[in-house]
Amino acid sequence: MPRATLADVAAAAGVSVPTVSKVLSGKKHVSAATRDKVLEAVRTAGYEAPRPATAPRVGVVDLLIDGLGSPWAQVLISGAEKAAARWGFSLVVTSSARSDFDLRRWIGMVRKRNTDGIVLVLSRADQREIAAIEELLHVPLVLLDPVGQRDPRLSTVGATNWLGGVMATTHLLELGHTRIAFIGGPLDTQCTLDRYEGYLAAHRTFGIDSDPALTRYGDFLVGSGRAYGGEMLDRDDPPTAVFAGNDLQAAGVYQAATERGLRVPDDLSVVGFDDSLLCETLSPPLTTVRQPLDDMANEAVRLVYEELTHPKGASGTRIELATTLIVRRSTAPHVRR
Question: Residue limits of the HTH lacI-type domain (predicted)?
């Protein structure tokens, strides 16, 4: 079967060849409807952008991440940088959280300078955006800490979020807490759903009903931990423990407790998730579920290397690394008052 050409894509989309070229190069001045038609035609026709016959490596891996400021992101970027050096690459980091970030322009820029592979860490990327990156750049693509429903065609590296939720909640239940709040990240992120399912599973194991009124979904930031933590601590029947979706939200719960004259862990036990650098700076140090972020970053870059060396088939590689409960001083046995 002959290889699809730009003319084939243009005919299928009902546009001109220059319009197709604009879409594929990430240029502006193309309507969203036209862009969608061209991308659909690219998929249908199986068009692949021409690359040099030997596809020489350029020694660069791109990391596109939706924020640089959180402790979680800092550890992840540091791990990715070390991993890139280990596997013979330089790392180019781009934040999609910038107010001037434009995915189409970024794709066009990467096409011009070339890259050996891309690691995506995006909490809000939809499948169309991911498909556009994969189809227009034609390099190994790995999702790190993937969100949303997993596409079996893509390679992913994550952590055992469900087991982490089980361990965090089991720890609190073993300390005698039965009113345990869950403050998660956005409801549409897979890691939040997995951690919440682990929270529910631990309750079932202990034969204790979880209270739906003690569940909230935030944005993985300090503010949501403080707001939702305060909201639940103000109830007539407040929780005696909180399992937070990440360490930043746990820090917000600390703030809410302090504002109400409550002490951690004497009056409220708190468990976070990630084991970021923040944990040791909180007072008391935070009990949390450790994600092996360094190892996750290394595996993501290694998968790029492996797919360059041995191109994957129709199915991507899925890797889940173990989470670990790190017990510090923010949890204590429940004392009935």
Answer: 4-58
The pLDDT of residue 209 is 96
DSSP summary character for residue 214:
G
Return the pLDDT at 147.
61
Tell me the pTM: 0.78
Domain locations along the chain: 6-45, 60-159+293-321, 161-291
Superfamily of domain 161-291: Response regulator (3.40.50.2300)
pLDDT at 313: 63
The CA angle 128-153-15, to the nearest 5 degrees, is 40
Query: Within 96-221, where are the H helices?
Result: 103-113, 127-137, 161-174, 190-205
**Strand, coil or helix: 215:** strand
60-159+293-321 and 161-291 share one CATH topology? yes
**How is residue 102 annotated by DSSP?**
-
Using 70 as the pLDDT threshold, list the residues of the chain that sit under it: 1-3, 17, 22, 24-29, 46-56, 123-128, 135-136, 147-151, 312-314, 337
Report the residue count for the chain: 337
What top-level class would CATH report for the domain 60-159+293-321?
alpha beta
Q: How far apart are CA 126 and CA 248, in angstroms?
A: 24
Long-range contacts of 20-25, Cβ-Cβ distance < 8 Å, separation of 24 or more: 24/49, 24/111, 24/136, 25/108, 25/111
Q: 3-class DSSP state for residue 325?
A: strand
Cross-strand partners of 65: 95, 121
Phi/psi at 326 (5° precision): -110, 110
Q: For residue 268, which of 165, 175, 166, 161 has the smallest C-alpha distance? A: 175
CA-closest candidate to residue 172, choices 12, 288, 28: 288
Beta-carbon count within 10 A of 285 CB: 15
